[in-house]
Amino acid sequence: MEKRRVVCPNCDSINAVPVNRPAEAAKCGRCHAKLFQGTPAELDAARLERHIANSDIPVVVDFWAPWCGPCRAMAPIFAQAAKTIEPRARFAKVNVDENPEAARRYGVQGIPALLAFSEGKVVARQAGLTDANTLHGWVERLVVCSNPG
Protein backbone atom coordinates (compact mmCIF):
# COMPACT_ATOMS: atom_id res chain seq x y z
CA MET A 1 0.00 0.00 0.00
CA GLU A 2 1.41 3.36 -1.04
CA LYS A 3 1.80 5.92 1.75
CA ARG A 4 2.77 9.58 2.00
CA ARG A 5 4.75 11.05 4.87
CA VAL A 6 2.94 13.89 6.61
CA VAL A 7 4.29 15.78 9.62
CA CYS A 8 1.80 16.51 12.40
CA PRO A 9 1.20 20.27 12.81
CA ASN A 10 0.65 19.70 16.53
CA CYS A 11 3.51 17.46 17.76
CA ASP A 12 5.75 17.24 14.64
CA SER A 13 5.62 13.43 14.48
CA ILE A 14 6.11 11.92 11.06
CA ASN A 15 3.06 9.92 9.98
CA ALA A 16 2.55 7.53 7.06
CA VAL A 17 -0.83 8.26 5.49
CA PRO A 18 -2.19 5.69 2.99
CA VAL A 19 -2.95 7.41 -0.31
CA ASN A 20 -6.11 5.35 -0.79
CA ARG A 21 -7.77 6.72 2.38
CA PRO A 22 -9.26 10.20 2.83
CA ALA A 23 -6.42 12.40 4.12
CA GLU A 24 -8.92 14.85 5.64
CA ALA A 25 -9.74 12.23 8.30
CA ALA A 26 -6.11 11.27 9.04
CA LYS A 27 -4.95 11.62 12.64
CA CYS A 28 -1.49 11.65 14.16
CA GLY A 29 -0.40 8.28 15.49
CA ARG A 30 1.29 9.94 18.46
CA CYS A 31 -0.91 12.82 19.68
CA HIS A 32 -4.13 11.89 17.78
CA ALA A 33 -4.62 15.45 16.46
CA LYS A 34 -5.98 15.85 12.95
CA LEU A 35 -3.09 15.97 10.48
CA PHE A 36 -4.94 18.51 8.35
CA GLN A 37 -6.73 21.22 10.28
CA GLY A 38 -7.36 23.70 7.46
CA THR A 39 -5.22 26.39 9.09
CA PRO A 40 -1.56 27.31 8.62
CA ALA A 41 0.82 25.75 11.15
CA GLU A 42 2.88 28.30 13.11
CA LEU A 43 6.46 27.00 12.90
CA ASP A 44 9.81 28.03 14.32
CA ALA A 45 13.06 27.35 12.44
CA ALA A 46 13.58 23.83 13.82
CA ARG A 47 9.98 22.77 13.22
CA LEU A 48 10.13 24.23 9.70
CA GLU A 49 13.15 22.06 8.89
CA ARG A 50 11.37 18.96 10.21
CA HIS A 51 8.28 19.65 8.10
CA ILE A 52 10.06 20.33 4.83
CA ALA A 53 12.53 17.45 5.22
CA ASN A 54 9.91 14.84 6.10
CA SER A 55 6.85 15.72 4.03
CA ASP A 56 5.79 14.00 0.83
CA ILE A 57 3.33 16.80 0.05
CA PRO A 58 4.34 20.35 -0.87
CA VAL A 59 4.90 22.71 2.07
CA VAL A 60 3.95 26.34 1.37
CA VAL A 61 5.49 28.77 3.86
CA ASP A 62 4.54 32.38 4.52
CA PHE A 63 7.51 34.29 5.97
CA TRP A 64 6.00 37.29 7.79
CA ALA A 65 6.26 39.71 10.73
CA PRO A 66 3.52 41.17 12.94
CA TRP A 67 4.53 44.80 12.23
CA CYS A 68 4.28 44.32 8.43
CA GLY A 69 1.06 45.75 6.94
CA PRO A 70 1.19 43.69 3.73
CA CYS A 71 1.84 40.58 5.87
CA ARG A 72 -1.27 41.27 7.93
CA ALA A 73 -3.24 41.76 4.69
CA MET A 74 -1.84 38.46 3.36
CA ALA A 75 -2.78 36.45 6.49
CA PRO A 76 -6.51 35.88 5.72
CA ILE A 77 -5.74 35.10 2.07
CA PHE A 78 -3.14 32.52 3.13
CA ALA A 79 -5.49 31.07 5.77
CA GLN A 80 -8.28 30.68 3.18
CA ALA A 81 -5.88 28.88 0.81
CA ALA A 82 -4.97 26.48 3.63
CA LYS A 83 -8.65 25.80 4.25
CA THR A 84 -9.41 25.03 0.59
CA ILE A 85 -6.19 23.30 -0.57
CA GLU A 86 -5.16 21.13 2.40
CA PRO A 87 -4.54 18.13 2.48
CA ARG A 88 -2.89 18.36 -0.94
CA ALA A 89 -0.32 20.76 0.52
CA ARG A 90 0.76 21.83 4.02
CA PHE A 91 0.55 25.56 4.82
CA ALA A 92 2.85 27.08 7.42
CA LYS A 93 3.83 30.50 8.74
CA VAL A 94 7.24 31.56 10.04
CA ASN A 95 7.65 34.83 11.96
CA VAL A 96 10.95 36.29 10.66
CA ASP A 97 11.45 38.43 13.79
CA GLU A 98 11.44 35.30 15.96
CA ASN A 99 13.26 33.12 13.40
CA PRO A 100 15.76 35.28 11.50
CA GLU A 101 17.98 32.25 10.82
CA ALA A 102 15.19 30.58 8.82
CA ALA A 103 14.69 33.73 6.74
CA ARG A 104 18.45 33.97 6.10
CA ARG A 105 18.76 30.30 5.22
CA TYR A 106 16.16 30.61 2.47
CA GLY A 107 17.22 34.03 1.19
CA VAL A 108 14.13 35.92 2.32
CA GLN A 109 14.93 39.59 1.75
CA GLY A 110 11.48 41.11 1.94
CA ILE A 111 8.17 40.13 3.45
CA PRO A 112 5.64 38.77 2.94
CA ALA A 113 7.50 36.04 1.09
CA LEU A 114 5.95 32.73 0.10
CA LEU A 115 8.24 29.78 -0.49
CA ALA A 116 7.11 26.35 -1.63
CA PHE A 117 9.11 23.27 -0.74
CA SER A 118 8.95 19.85 -2.34
CA GLU A 119 11.22 16.94 -1.45
CA GLY A 120 13.05 19.22 0.99
CA LYS A 121 13.97 21.87 -1.59
CA VAL A 122 12.64 25.31 -2.51
CA VAL A 123 10.74 24.83 -5.77
CA ALA A 124 8.98 28.20 -6.07
CA ARG A 125 8.95 31.71 -4.58
CA GLN A 126 6.35 34.46 -4.55
CA ALA A 127 7.33 37.87 -3.20
CA GLY A 128 4.94 40.44 -1.77
CA LEU A 129 1.22 40.61 -1.21
CA THR A 130 -0.84 38.57 -3.63
CA ASP A 131 -4.58 38.14 -4.14
CA ALA A 132 -6.50 34.93 -3.38
CA ASN A 133 -6.88 33.83 -7.01
CA THR A 134 -3.19 34.25 -7.77
CA LEU A 135 -2.17 32.40 -4.60
CA HIS A 136 -4.63 29.59 -5.23
CA GLY A 137 -3.44 29.14 -8.83
CA TRP A 138 0.23 29.26 -7.78
CA VAL A 139 -0.25 26.55 -5.15
CA GLU A 140 -2.48 24.40 -7.37
CA ARG A 141 0.27 24.32 -10.04
CA LEU A 142 2.77 23.21 -7.38
CA VAL A 143 0.43 20.47 -6.16
CA VAL A 144 -0.07 19.15 -9.69
CA CYS A 145 3.68 19.20 -10.39
CA SER A 146 4.52 17.35 -7.17
CA ASN A 147 1.74 14.77 -7.54
CA PRO A 148 1.78 13.73 -11.21
CA GLY A 149 -0.74 11.23 -12.41
TrEMBL record:
Q: What are the UniProt keywords, alphabetically?
A: Disulfide bond, Electron transport, Metal-binding, Redox-active center, Transport
Domain (Thioredoxin) ranges: 17-144
GO cellular component, alphabetical, reads: cytosol
Kindly give the InterPro entries that the UniProt entry links to this protein.
Answer: Thio2_N, Thioredoxin, Thioredoxin-like_sf, Thioredoxin_CS, Thioredoxin_domain
What's an example of a GO molecular-function annotation for this chain? metal ion binding
One Pfam family per UniProt:
Thioredoxin
The GO annotation for biological process reads: cell redox homeostasis
Q: Which family does it belong to?
A: Belongs to the thioredoxin family.
Protein name, entry field: Thioredoxin
**Gene that encodes it:** trxC
